[in-house]
Amino acid sequence: YVDSHSRFLFYSSSMVLLEIFVSILSLNLSEPAYGADIAKLKYKLVAGEHGLIIRVKGFNHKLPLLLQLIIDHVSEFSFTPAIFEMIKEELKKTYFNMLIKPEVLAKDLHHVILEHGKWSVIDKYRRLMKGLSAESLLSFVKAFKSQLFVEGLAQGNLTC
Question: Any idea where the Peptidase M16 middle/third domain is (predicted)?
């Protein structure tokens, strides 16, 4: 039996850890993916409610290389404690800034009411303020990668 408070702490910390993971992953990719940006290839990493969303856009003959670069960085994910603390502090500021803007808070509350499984900014901010460690991120990433599966959507002029 798991009480609702324990379940809340687990899931809210997972969402926050996913956002930290995505932020560090984006930081790790900034230098190696610079060439892709010059070649007019775009990518976006998003911490979605149901997992990591990777969007790639550009000429299809080079997209597999960019996607492979991202996947390699996911599989070989690493960070330093200093980077973890920096990202955690940035996320605290981001959450706080969202909480002090009534229009953003109202929109977030609207989504929480309408979307099943959506965690509010307030919940995520509270969880972050209770403290998360670099070790908890490592455990999260290990569990995340062990349950990883892929769904894809391709649009446009494609050749396989």
Answer: 14-126
Residue that has been written with the tokens 């609207």 in this structure: 110
Which domain covers residue 71, as residue numbers?
4-146
Better-predicted residue by pLDDT, 93 or 149: 93
Residue 3: what pLDDT?
39
Spell out the residues 6+ positions from residue 136 whose beta carbon is closer than 8 angstroms to its own.
Answer: 13, 17
45 membership: H or E segment, kind and range = strand 42-48
pLDDT at 12: 60
Output the CA torsion 112→142→133→14 (10° steps): 10
Q: Strand, coil or helix: what is 46?
A: strand
Overall number of domains in the chain: 1
